[in-house]
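Subject: Predicted fold for Rhodanese-related sulfurtransferase, 136 residues

User T.R. writes:
Posting the sequence so we have a shared reference for the thread.
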Amino acid sequence: MAMTLSCKTMVAEAESRIKAYTVQEAQQKLADPKVQLVDLRDVRELEREGVVPGAFHAPRGMIEFWVDPESPYFKPVFGEDREFIFFCAAGWRSALTTDTVQRMGLAPVAHMSGGFSAWKAAGAPVAEKPAKAAKA
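User M.O. replies:
I've generated the structure tokens; pasting them so everyone works from the same file.
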């Protein structure tokens, strides 16, 4: 089956429309209370690879529903007056996500080039995924 639009093309098109930060630029923004890093990776990736301290986890499959205030799945963090910097493992999912949420009206938004892989390679801080609290 011939694809009419490849994922590589989709990512390239998204990257032409969005703002991107390097790992170093994202690191400099980490302590800023007006910035929220958003980790789009699957929970298994978080458990296996670790997390960026302070990043909010929003699985890629739910992001459109979590950012839309009209959705029953809306997460209040996305209603806060912050810049949202999305990242995934390599930067592909975050490029597509940033383009999507930007088109939905979430602003300001950006993505971190190279994703968590580049974060780790740069020696940026990584923590273990916090254990889920037991339900009472």
